Amino acid sequence: MTDLLRTAPFFLLSFIFGLITIWFQDNRVLLGHPARSDSLMSRILGSGLASWFYVYKAILPIKLTAIYPKWKIDTSSWLSYLPVLLLAACFATFYLNRRSWGRPWLFAFGCFVIMLFPVLGFFDQSFYQYSLVADHWQYFSIVGVIALAMASGVWVYRRSGTFGRYSICVIWASLMLSLGSATWGRTHVYADSEALWRDVIAKKPNAWSAHVNLGNAFLTVGKIRDAVVEYEAALKIEPFLAEPHNNLGTILIRSGQLSEAIAHYEQALRIKLDYPEAQNNLGLGSHGCRRL
Known about the structure:
The protein has helices at 2-29, 40-59, 82-96, 102-116, 143-158, 162-187, 193-203, 208-220, 224-237, 242-254, 258-271, 276-291. It has 292 residues and is mainly α. It has two domains: 25-159, no CATH class; 193-291, Serine Threonine Protein Phosphatase 5, Tetratricopeptide repeat. Helix 7 (193-203) runs antiparallel to helix 8, helix 10 (242-254) packs antiparallel against helix 11 and helix 10 (242-254) runs parallel beside helix 12 (276-291). The protein starts with a helix and ends with a helix.
């Protein structure tokens, strides 16, 4: 009870700030437009798949990318139910064995899933337009799994003989060197925006958001032709995107092609009616045409 009273303020603050985040996403980021329109059952099935995805990436951090392919959950397929059923079976097994070996597993994976819960798909957020998972969402929740792995390693080490302990040290050192090398290699992807979005496109060529962001990076540094190529590539993948049309309009208006620019601004507004940048640009472009 003492521990509960001491930690209660932190849980209360977390709950309050969580509600603020949900409100902000709905009213200030998404502006009332849902990022996901799938059913509750689809979200439940997706939560099981996402949980195992994060465990997999934590154990085997390969093929990492800023934007992963967006899953399509088929509620009519029995295969879609396997991840969440397996997760439930694991928790049931840990609970039934909570008085022995299952207790640390129940606590570690319980913390993991509970801390992941806000990003398992039940609360809408803008990033779901691109992907249902993101590596950085598990940074806090994975602490429980890491603690379990470390405790397990210590348990095995203490019960091993001299040769076993040396072997464990060698394996541990090799693992640290491998992960450190992988981390160093991954940091280069975040050197700048261009490197990041090129990496995403290399792994997922049909990631329209990566093409848009790479185009924005090119536009920022004045690589106009490269920006146009990326915006056009994004529109080939997903024709109903307002931002590339708006940005193409901006590029065209700078080169004096007002009528072509206005066409892009109008198309952007047909796709997204409440797009203030396109409305402003269209007004400026129309004013320029009248002056001419």
